[in-house]
Amino acid sequence: MNAPKNLFSYPRHRADYTTPAPFLPMSRAEMEALGWDSCDVILVTGDAYIDHPSFGMALVGRLLEKQGFRVGIISQPDWHSAEAFRALGRPNLYFGVTAGNMDSMINRYTSDRKIRSEDAYTADGDPNKRPDRALVVYAQRAREAYPDANVVVGSIEASLRRIAHYDYWSDKVRRSVLPDSKADILLYGNAERALVELTHRIAAGEPIKSIRDLRGTAFMAPSGWKPADGWTEANSTRYDTPGRVEAHPDPYEMKQKEPASCGTAETAVVERPVVILSREERQAALREQRSKTVVRLPSYDAVKDDPILYAHASRVLHLESNPGNARALVQAHGERDVWLNPPPLPLAMDEMDGVYDMPYARSPHPAYGKAHIPAWEMIRFSVNIMRGCFGGCTFCSITEHEGRIIQSRSEPSILREIELIRDKTKGFTGTISDLGGPTANMYRLACKDKKIEESCRRLSCVYPSICVNLNTDHSKLIQLYRKARAIPGIKKILVSSGLRYDLAVKSPEYVKELVTHHVGGLLKIAPEHSEDGPLSKMMKPGMGSYYAFKEMFERFSREAGKEQYLIPYFIAAHPGTTDEDMLNLAIWLKKNNFQLDQVQTFLPTPMAMATAMYHGRKNPLHKVSADSEAVETVRAGKIRRLHKAFLRYHDPDNWPILREALQRMGRSDLIGNSDRHLVPRYTPPAFGASTQPGQARKQIGSGTPSRKAFDAKAGKFGARPSYKTSAVKAARKAK
User: Fold this and answer.
1) pTM score, two decimals?
2) Which residues make Cβ contacts (< 8 Å) with residue 209, sequence separation at least 6?
């Protein structure tokens, strides 16, 4: 990879615009107060505007402001007409459109396709402030408001829907959002590099339709278009063949040659000198050839009707995701192509610092008054120390969006942000709620050799085992924790982000540091399952790593004189999961005194590899063909509810469906009223016999009963109390 241009090395667009705005303006009145007659860039977002680096539009807006551009925000506009999109006038350069920090369909709907009762990114949690498929709707309205304005789309909804993708909510493969949104260009992943260069080039007068060379971008192109002479096209089905593989002809087979195959003038062999190249020259030639090769994926019309081709396309896209060796991709959508340039190059540490050190107000825009914004309440005392994840979990969208290469901030930058929280964030009492990121303990971890990293095509650095080339040294993170705790006014630093425990056990010193100082009594970790079948489809480690971490956790807790407990997270109905797998997990939970209050059912997110398994019932972790491994897929609503019920075997609402399933599976021996049974023989009258969710609890008495009262009655019939009491009591008893 060639060294990219530093984010902060561009000349300022407006040399006289150097004073940051208190907040990026959301109204004409705010623009006038700043002395603006227009905005260079107008950012449209589906979230409430909170001026904090955890919120995409604030980070993007402040970055462009730093470059000398005037940036306005249109937050959660009324999408029923174009009028709200005219609130700040026509942008001089472009509309930047995003659905918000989450894909809008995931934000609005549960895994059961029911509308969520709360939108965490909206004032007072109002669930009706954004439309379905918000990115497309907003982009179309922006175009309607000002037909001659440029439209740029980005953020996670754009990233996850940049090519043809399976959409769980409509249960079909949908087109890329590019043709539907009518956008001029799409930015995917962490797009700071592309965004800054794109904005400066448009400001310099370059037409947006001619900007086709930026990494991390996608755009519509005429069929067969190439960036320049010398480019070649490789059909993805040639080097990763889906369907039945035809036998290659035997080169040693003796066949009678046609007359034309003899040495006539037309077929005469041309003698050429043999050129001997050094290893370095051969590698350079291959890199040059690769950099000018585009891989053609099966077309939208092909993948929408053929699940095997869809799984193949998903596999190829993920294999072409390392910025060090990824090739451009192209996919036909009707008579035009969606062209995807290779992924963006990761930010260097000083660039990460610059992005997070910008003058954020670190609070919601004053327009929201005293409204409660759940996402803000959750993150306002937390600090993001890194980006990316090399875990490669197939159900997770982090890899598709942020990539596998970890981008870390420097220690001084992180410590400065902690001091800013202490000094400027209202309500701070001395506790940092999280010092983490997508994965809490991947800070500054990377491949031991940059050349190996750039050539690697593994889908995960830690599955099926931790790569020998991965540096697992946690010493820099330990040092960061210690310095953060030493800041005056800081009473407690918690780590609440997800923990990769198979990495943590490689550093007992880290586990000791974490357990002794950074756990608030309960630590969340995610084994996701106990059985090898589903774990292999998730690309998650087996339970051996969990037990090793658990032993360390409990030992170091005892040494610290603290009573602390692990809270495991599990997924129901993931591809590759059978009824027997869920039953075995339920037995494991009961054996270990776990009773889960919150559980999740697998939600197929656009472009994830597990989603390809769900849709096509094929495993894209390996080459896909008609004869390749079939994946057990739970699609029927009743079976999905059953798998979820196994995780909450202790809930009386689930006893009827579990009894029916256990009888069908030949496991009636698990039905009874003793401790060795999973569910009781009958539902007591106090709980009723309804299988409707929530009905058993409601029938205990009028109103919503207290958890303590409910568990007291449940306990009489063989069900244990909730995890928060049962695990604690069991541990105390063991002592």
Assistant:
1) 0.88
2) 184
